[in-house]
Automatic annotation (TrEMBL):
Gene3D superfamilies: Alpha-2,3-sialyltransferase. It comes from the Bacteria. This is DUF115 domain-containing protein. Residues 500-655 form the 6-hydroxymethylpterin diphosphokinase MptE-like domain. It comes from [Clostridium] leptum DSM 753. Pfam families: MptE-like. The chain crosses the membrane at residues 77-95, 101-121, 133-151, 182-200, 207-223, 229-246, 253-272, 342-366, 378-405.
Amino acid sequence: MPARERKIYVIEKTAARSKPRRITDYCAALVFYFQHILKFLFSGKMIATVIGNLDPWYLLGPWYLWKNRKESKKLKASLIVISIFFLYGILQLIVFPNMSILKLAVTLLKLAVCILCMLYVMENAEKINFLRIAKIISVFYGITLPFALFFNQSPLFWITNDYVNKYTTTRLRLFYYEPSELGFRLIIVMVVLIGFFLASKCKKEKVLLAVLILVDAFTLYLARSMGAIGIGALAIGVMFLYDWIAHNSRKKTVIYSCICAALLLFCVMMAVTQSDLYMRLMDTLQGKDSSNRYRIGLSFRILGDSFWNYWGLGCGFGNVNTPAFLNQYTDWGLKTVITNSYVYYMTETGIFGVLTLGGFISILFYRCVKGKSAVKWGLFVFIVVFQFMGGYLTNGLNWVAYGIILSNFNERNYYKSIELKSLQTETHADQTNLSQKKSRYLSLREKILGSPFLNVLFQPVIFLRRAARWLRGVVQYEIWFRIKAFFRKLRLGTSYQKYEPMKLYQNRHKGQRCFIVATGPSQSIEDINKLKGEITFSVNSIYTCFSDTDWRPTYYCVQDRVVYEKNCKGIDELKAAQRFISDSIPQAYRKGDILYPTNERFHHCFNGYKFRIRFSDDSSKVVFAANTIVYSAIQLAVYMGFSEIYLTGCDCNYTSPKKHFNHDTNEKIESKIKLDEIGNLMLASYRAAKKYTDTHPVKIYNATRGGKLEIFPRVNLDDVVS
């Protein structure tokens, strides 16, 4: 094992062992695996009754009350939430006195216990070792699977006469009530394992997790749970999409593209061979599958009809499963009960159920956005969609998942010390080796693009890479950015408050002039000293000249992650009248700073000079980044109302040996092609600014001494300041 890989593995093992090996982890795994073991003691309808009402996860509810018996605020808040449901149940009882009081009381009590269970997980999620529990459960499945395959006709492990699935009458269920319950639990375990697989940076750990995921996937295939497979695939796809957007890299893009191609090939093979899963999917899409037709079509029809029959109040908590209600819809084909969890709940509670369920799902979605966790996104998509298709509302495992989503859990915190420690212990030899590898890569890239034959040969690869960058730009910086802006506009949550101070600067300097002091090599201390008394913007590493002058900028801007990481100490100590910090580097934000929303599509996702770069005159909504912080500073200046903007130190010349004035920096190794792309993108952004100023009462002048920027009219700095 290489030294760096061994180092990361040791750190990850240390992080894993930082959570104690408690017996409760094994108990939780045993409960998860043997939850339906009581099915062997009962028969007929009693099985569903016992399993539904004796859920071992309910024990977390009373335990939450016991642990917080001295925390009056927590108990009061939880009781207020629970009392809302009890009061609505009493209202239903007053309006419909013929409903079953026993079923109403039992359902309300189970719902109260589920809420307390969710609160317990929400409060203790960071103390629970979900990874170890998921590993233990997967090992249980791996141990049991050979026995199930050997005894392939045993009712202990299999359902051998499944009348619902006509293509596969023999389905694996292990110790669960039915195969769909096994599929439901397998997807939850797989979501947790895949989330940690994406977060881990140790190859050995990734191999172990991959093996456990494959064991679970094979078990799921034997269960033939169509709903779990379909919805689980959607949830896992969302996890990979989120990971690609949040932690994108060239290597990850290639790997995910290959995975998508392999899955597409697998789907084609299933269609060609007409496997049982494919045939049942076709039956579902054509409305021929009796199970899905009953679960989806009939349930929603009954919901709409009962909504009017009960005046929008619902038939009462727990009263869907009563002879009085079932007899109303026997002619419709209702045999036992509505099998959709959320539809069942809305049928019982009417408008109240629609509002509470919609609000609860919105809160879950917000916590996923806020939590930045692939596991949370996977659980959210799977649980919510699955409950619309089937399941049980008061299933304790659902509420455990809700608690995880609402908590501060993040799988990347499990290995939170990896990146820091690996960076701290990285030697100079490692850095030299990395630089040599990058130099060889850039040299090879130039040879490929310089050779006509190789250039044509690699065109498909280049096209796929550009397509991936374009797709990332659309998803992350168009769709996702607009969703966040919509939440800010509605003033939802607390994050919008950080952007509110930006609005105070709109037209603050209307009709005045300002100078944007860049850090190009043409900049000089003599020119900077001439700007004393003027309103000035400056950027990035300008602080390096403060030891040579007593001039300080009026406003300071920074938005590039790499720049901040290299200069974080000097930037954090910088004293200016006001600092403007991009939300792309939230770690730079300090109390008193102004945060502005940045759209980095043209900076990260493709060669923006080939496309139409946008310009924003409302920095409280968006500032478009384009490979130069000066472009963002121009947008901020326009937002503040300046009518004349003078640029100094904007050389726009990345081909010269010296990139900045007054200090030496460890520049990244860039090829000539990359430098040309940067220069073209910078010039394209300035053209966008020029196009805006041509139609608005704002003028931009270039007061730089030399350089390649010829888009704006040139002026002599001495004449302007005199």
